[in-house]
Amino acid sequence: MKVLVLGSKGQLGLSLRDHLSGTDHEVVYASREQIDVTDLGEVEEKVTEVNPDFLINASAYTAVDEAERHWEEANAANNIAVSNLARVCLNLECWLIHVSTDYVFDGESQLPYGEFDETAPRSVYGETKLEGERAIQSSGCSYIIIRTAWVFSEYGNNFLKSMMRLGRDHEELNVVADQTGCPTYAQDLAKAIIIMMPSLVTNPSYSGIYHYCGDEACTWHDFAVAIFSEAEKQGFQVPRKVNPISTAEYPTLAVRPRYSVLDCSAIFGSFGVSPSNWRLGIKQVIDDLNL
Questions:
Q1: What is the pLDDT of residues 144-193, one digit of tens each?
Q2: Per-residue model confidence (pLDDT) at position 22
Q3: Fewer Cβ atoms within 10 Å of its own Cβ: the N or the C terminal residue of the chain?
Q4: Cα(170)–Cα(190) distance, rounded to whole angstroms?
Q5: Residue 107: which residues within 8 A CB-CB, separation 6 or more?
Q6: How many CB atoms lie within 10 A of CB 161?
Q7: b/e sequence 59-72, b meaning 16+ C-beta within 10 Å
Q8: What 3-state DSSP class applies to 99?
Q9: Does 285 score more than 90 pLDDT?
Q10: Exposed/middle/buried for 182, CB within 10 Å: 0-12, 13-18, 19+?
Q11: Catalytic site residue from 29, 103, 125, 259
Q12: What is the pTM of this model?
C-alpha cells in the first residue's frame, strides 16, 4: 500500500518513519515546507501526484498557549488544512488518518472520556482541533480520527525532554499536580496506526473516531517523578525535590483540562491495539538520550 505521511519532521512523523521503514508499504514523507496543507490548490496537486492509499496527517499547530494569541494560524493548521486534506482524500478514495487531542473535552468529567462523550473545548487549540474533526466527518471521506494526549518521544520538544533539561539545572522543581491525563509514547502511537491500516482495507465500516493514550492515568507531577526516577537510575542529574503545585500556582494563557483521561476500549475492541505503556516509553526515551 502507498502511504503519505504529512508532518514528517514532528514527533509522530519521525516515529512513523521508524516503524514504516520495516514494512512493505511504499511511503512518501512530506513536511509543511514541501506541502502547504493550508493551500487547497497545492494539496490537490501534490497529494494527487502521490495518489496514496492512506494519508496520515501528523501535522498540527500544537503550541497551546501561543494559539490563544494566534487564532488564525492555529485555525489554518488545525481546521482549514484538515478540511483540505479530507476533500482531496474523498476525491482520491484514500483513507485519511488524522490525529486529534484530549483538549476537545472540558476536563470536568470524573470518568474516562469515550468517543461519543460531549465535546466542549476550553482553549483555541482545542476548538480548532475539534473544528478539524468536524470538517473530516462532514467531508464524506473514509477516515480514522485518533484522539491522543500528553505525547512524548525521543524527538522534538515535549514534557519529558523539558524535565530532563530542567532537572540538570535546578535543585528543585514545581510541577502541576491537579491535572490528570495519560501520557502517550509517540512510538506506540505510530505502531498503533500501522496495526490499524490493514483492517481498514477489508473493513471500511471501521471509519470513525478512536481514543488512544497511555495505560495509566497520572498527574503531571506523577509523570515528572517517574521521569526523574528512571533518569536517576541511568546516571542523569535530577532535582533534589519535585514539588506538587496547583494549576492556580502555574497560570497559563490557555485553560488545560483538569481531567482528560481517555477510554481506549474501542480501539482495542476493533483493532486489538493495547494502550501505550508510558513507563516503558520513559525508559526507552532515556535509554536513547543516554547513548
A1: 999 999 999 999 999 999 999 999 999 999 999 999 999 999 999 999 99
A2: 84
A3: C
A4: 33
A5: 122, 179, 256, 257, 258, 259, 260
A6: 17
A7: bbbbebeebbeeee
A8: strand
A9: yes
A10: buried
A11: 125
A12: 0.96
Amino acid at 168: R
DSSP run (H or E) holding 48: helix 40-50
Q: Are 243 and 113 in contact (CB under 8 A)?
A: no
Helix pair angle (278-289, 186-202), 10° resolution: 120
Alpha-carbon gap, residue 208 to 97, rounded angstroms: 10
* N residues, the chain: 291
Residue 125 appears among annotated catalytic residues: yes
Burial tier of 251 (Cβ tally within 10 Å: 0-12, 13-18, 19+): exposed
The backbone torsions φ and ψ at residue 55, rounded to the nearest 5 degrees and listed phi first, read -115, 115
At CA 15, angle to CA 14 and CA 19, rounded to 5?
115
